[in-house]
TrEMBL record:
Name used for this protein in its record: Uncharacterized protein
């Protein structure tokens, strides 16, 4: 046969060298290199988390079950690693899965359930829908309309941010914060796609990128949202994605309308949540054809490889910590700690309530859970102080929306963090002064305008 006499180069290649070859010497590793690789700031942060946790567990004594002290230690450990990024964020996010059982706070099964609840299902389904929006460039169409309406030509960055903020602010008054963020974040990323690539951007343009994302993140919490659909011709796939998107929003808004008008959710005895609707919409994307290729659907699983699973873990860790605060007894400790407000001077009561509630909401991932925890206590404190209850309950409830510092503070923050354009330090740089301004404005308006609108002075004795 042809080629029979030609030896295979693979078979002829010796497994070991037949003659001595110079062995490459590994570079000498001196003691300075070893020391610098161990004694560095990153490793210090790695040790700092568990060290602070141990110190708290040994030295801090709370008038509550010992699990509450251990929970404080776990929170400090996890938050230290999150803020310093001593280890990757998703790795830190998995720590409650072993810390809770080791510290005796909750069983492994219990803490694992926190990593997949209705809100996480809502975010997961919304991320899949966002990928479909990006796949067919619907977000660019929305971004173009936002840009044309508010900026014109040439581009005015300040007007663009104002327009994006106003648009996001408007309809967040009518829908859930996560829903608002999911609706507007593709618009924000569509605006960024019109800019040069990141490696070709100046420092000023890079800051503008972060400002666009943070505008949606914070405007979502502060107020409202809206989207503008394009007026140009759209392909079938684009129309179907927008239809699914529109159906999702309608179902979200009509599931539960008010106490007097319960919505379609009553047909299912309240068993259907926003997460159920989100996942349903995501499944539809894998069923509806895109009419481009035979048998091809609007979405395929390969596209879902882009899902930010690391941020799903991050959100799950936030809910795990929130559940741990409740189950460990730490929530009762926080409630009792607020009783000192009874002795606070009248003029300082609203700033104190606003400050404390805005800090606690950074720890408890769900704003609704924070409100449920604090508002009844504030009512009790107001009655004890012979104050109108609304004087404390309204600023306390509003302040729970000031979750501006961390991605885990509220699920809508995760949506912005998932874009990859912002880091924790960016949220802190903007979130800290934004929280200060919010506390100041709320402290100023509640005793003045609030007394007129709600008649809070009537209950003062």
């Amino acid at each position: 046969m042809a080629g029979e006499d030609t030896p295979s180069p693979i078979l002829e290649a010796p497994l070991l060298p037949l003659h001595d070859e110079p062995i490459q010497q590994t570079p000498n590793i001196n003691s300075f290199t070893i020391t610098s690789s161990i004694l560095n700031l990153k490793n210090f942060y790695v040790i700092l988390g568990p060290l602070l946790s141990i110190i708290i567990c040994l030295l801090v004594k709370l008038d509550a079950p010992t699990t509450s002290t251990k929970m404080v230690g776990v929170i400090v450990w996890v938050f230290t690693w999150w803020i310093t990024e001593a280890v990757p964020l998703p790795v830190t996010s998995m720590c409650p899965l072993f810390l809770f059982p080791l510290f005796g706070i909750a069983s492994a099964d219990t803490v694992a359930h926190s990593y997949m609840d209705d809100v996480i299902a809502l975010v997961l389904g919304s991320f899949i829908l966002a990928l479909a929006v990006e796949r067919y460039n619907v977000h660019k169409r929305l971004a173009l309309n936002i840009t044309l309406v508010f900026c014109g030509d040439p581009l005015n960055p300040a007007m663009l941010l104002l327009g994006l903020c106003a648009t996001t602010f408007f309809v967040s008054m009518w829908v859930h914060n996560v829903i608002a963020a999911v609706m507007m974040m593709p618009v924000a990323t569509g605006i960024l796609h019109r800019l040069p690539p990141a490696n070709e951007q100046s420092e000023l343009m890079n800051k503008f990128n972060r400002a666009v994302i943070l505008t949606v993140v914070y405007a979502t919490q502060i107020g409202g949202i809206s989207t503008i659909t394009g007026t140009g011709p759209m392909a079938f796939a684009e129309k179907m994605v927008l239809c699914v998107f529109g159906l999702l929003i309608i179902l979200w808004m009509t599931r539960r309308i008010s106490d007097d008008l319960p919505g379609w959710g009553v047909l299912f005895h309240g068993l259907v949540g926003d997460g159920s609707i989100s996942v349903l919409a995501a499944v539809l994307l894998f069923i509806i054809p895109n009419m481009k290729q035979n048998g091809e659907k609007l979405m395929n699983w390969n596209e879902c490889k882009k899902l930010p699973w690391n941020l799903i873990l991050l959100l799950g860790a936030g809910f795990a910590l929130a559940d741990g605060v409740q189950s460990s007894g730490l929530a009762d400790v926080l409630s009792k700690a607020l009783e000192f407000l009874k002795d606070v001077p009248y003029l300082a009561i609203v700033p104190a309530v606003t400050l404390l509630c805005s800090i606690i909401t950074e720890i408890v991932t769900s704003n609704a859970a924070t409100t449920t925890l604090l508002v009844p206590l504030l009512y009790h404190i107001a009655k004890t102080m012979h104050l109108h209850p609304l004087l404390l309950m309204i600023p306390g409830g509003i302040a729970t929306e000031f979750a501006f510092w961390l991605p885990t503070s509220t699920p809508s923050n995760v949506v912005g963090f998932a874009t990859g354009h912002i880091e924790i330090k960016d949220m802190l740089k903007v979130g800290v002064p934004l929280k200060v301004v919010g506390i100041f404005v709320l402290s100023l308006l509640m005793p003045t305008l609030g007394s007129i609108v709600y008649g809070t002075n009537d209950g003062t004795q």
